[in-house]
């Protein structure tokens, strides 16, 4: 089948960051404001994710709206995984960050051991796609835990969190452009965009008493979802969303 991952462009990273923000604010809205609670939200979103993932796996080529719907749902589920560990099981953020980092490292190790590549330019079999989505889930969970650890447990705050993670992503981009391994820098950037998006979402949605701007979770979620829809429609109808199968890397 054709490669199932879109081209890594500015639009890709924009939608990715917006998706992570929606994952943070959307999960908070459903769990707190709607009153579903963390457990029921996680169950409902996991069910929707399973449906979206089956739809994604059934396609033979990259379909923008299916792919990005799956990413948004993975973002919400990844957020809920961390929140369940922290709020329900009282696992410390440092412990959950370490656990998710180990889980992601193990996923990469098995993936590379089986396929001999971690490149997203070669997601051309169902097995590789399953490895890919497993890694994506753990990057979201890890990014959520690490972001909360930095902004809350370590007292960095939402505003400084956005700046700090933005600087780290910029540094990763610079190392890529001066010759660093493209696969390594991609996955580092992918992990870092999660706490960046989460910090941005909290900065916009949380009340001023907690260091936010007080826009609210529903307004922030709707605004960012609207931009995602526009961008996905753009890449779909302009033809930029369909990716040609690339050479093995």
SSE blueprint and pairings:
Layout: H1 10-33, H2 37-58, H3 64-88, H4 93-115, H5 126-153, H6 158-177, H7 182-205, H8 217-237
What does it look like?
The structure is a single chain. By secondary structure, the chain is mostly helical. It has one domain. It has eight helices and no strands. Helix 5 crosses helix 7. Residues 240-249 have low confidence and may be disordered.
- Taking all Cα atoms into account, the compactness measure Rg is 17 Å
The major beta sheet can be summarized as: none
Content of β-strand: under 5%
Overall domain count: 1
Structural shape: globular
Report low-confidence residues grouped into runs of 5 or more.
240-249
Broad structural category: mainly alpha
Helical content stands at over 70%
Q: Can you write the helix and strand succession as a string?
A: HHHHHHHH
Count of DSSP H/I helices: 8
Overall mean pLDDT stands at 86
Cα separation of the termini? 16 Å
Number of beta-strand segments: 0
Protein name: Membrane-anchored protein
Keywords: Membrane, Transmembrane, Transmembrane helix
Transmembrane segments: 30-55, 62-81, 93-114, 130-150, 156-176, 183-201, 213-237
InterPro entries: DUF347 (IPR007136)
What attributes characterize this protein structure?
8 helices; 249 residues
Describe the structure concisely for a colleague.
The protein is an all-alpha fold and 249 residues long. The chain is built from eight helices and no strands. It has one domain (10-237).
């Amino acid at each position: 089948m054709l490669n199932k991952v879109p081209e890594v462009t500015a639009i890709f990273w924009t939608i990715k960051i917006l998706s992570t923000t929606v994952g943070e604010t959307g999960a908070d809205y459903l769990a707190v404001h709607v009153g579903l609670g963390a457990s029921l939200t996680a169950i409902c979103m996991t069910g929707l994710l399973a449906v979206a993932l089956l739809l994604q796996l059934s396609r033979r080529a990259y379909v923008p709206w299916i792919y990005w719907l799956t990413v948004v749902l993975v973002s919400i589920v990844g957020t809920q995984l961390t929140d369940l560990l922290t709020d329900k099981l009282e696992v410390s953020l440092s412990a959950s960050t370490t656990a998710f980092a180990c889980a992601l490292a193990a996923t990469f190790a098995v993936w590379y051991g089986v396929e001999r590549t971690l490149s997203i330019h070669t997601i051309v079999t169902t097995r590789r796609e399953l490895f890919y989505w497993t890694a994506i889930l753990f990057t979201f969970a890890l990014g959520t835990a690490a972001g909360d650890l930095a902004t809350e447990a370590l007292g960095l705050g939402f505003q400084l969190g956005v700046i700090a993670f933005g600087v780290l992503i910029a540094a990763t981009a610079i190392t890529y452009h001066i010759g660093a391994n493209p696969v390594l820098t991609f996955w580092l950037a992918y992990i870092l965009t999660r706490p960046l998006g989460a910090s941005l979402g909290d900065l916009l949605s949380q009340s001023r008493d907690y260091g936010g701007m007080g826009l609210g979770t529903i307004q922030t979620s709707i605004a960012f979802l609207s931009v995602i829809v526009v961008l996905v429609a753009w890449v779909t109808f302009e033809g930029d969303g369909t990716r040609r199968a690339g050479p093995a890397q």
